[in-house]
Design a protein that fits this description.
Layout (H helix, E strand, L loop, with lengths): L5 H11 L4 H13 L3 H14 L5 H12 L3 H18 L2 H15 L1
Helix pairs in contact: 1-2, 2-3, 3-4, 4-5, 4-6, 5-6
């Protein structure tokens, strides 16, 4: 029996659970891994429409926008992530987001 590629498996699962945050995030990461940056951006934004407090999306959206050449947009996502990381008390994510901001604004 042939195994479906991971992206196809995620699509199949999303048919049953279209608002599953983890599945939508996993699909975005699959797009990112194959350099489908625009698709990844749209999928990360979908995750945030489902759960605006899903912190990892802000870092990933910053990264994607950097790759798309939209540095101003990347800065906005990093800043939103910093605010959320502070609110959630997530020091690790806060450090990563601040470093990304520092590298971009330098």
């Amino acid at each position: 029996m042939e195994r479906l590629p991971r992206k196809e498996l995620i699509y199949d699962m999303l048919l049953k659970e279209p608002n599953d945050v983890f599945l939508n995030y996993a699909l975005a990461m699959e797009h990112l891994s194959t350099n489908e940056f625009k698709e990844a951006e749209l999928q990360f934004k979908k995750v945030l429409s489902i759960d605006p407090d899903y912190l990892p999306c802000y870092y990933q959206l910053g990264q994607v926008n950097e790759k798309l050449g939209s540095n101003e947009q990347a800065i906005l996502f990093y800043q939103q992530g910093v605010a959320l990381a502070n609110k959630q008390g997530n020091k690790k994510a806060l450090g990563e987001l601040n470093e990304a901001l520092w590298m971009l604004e330098d």
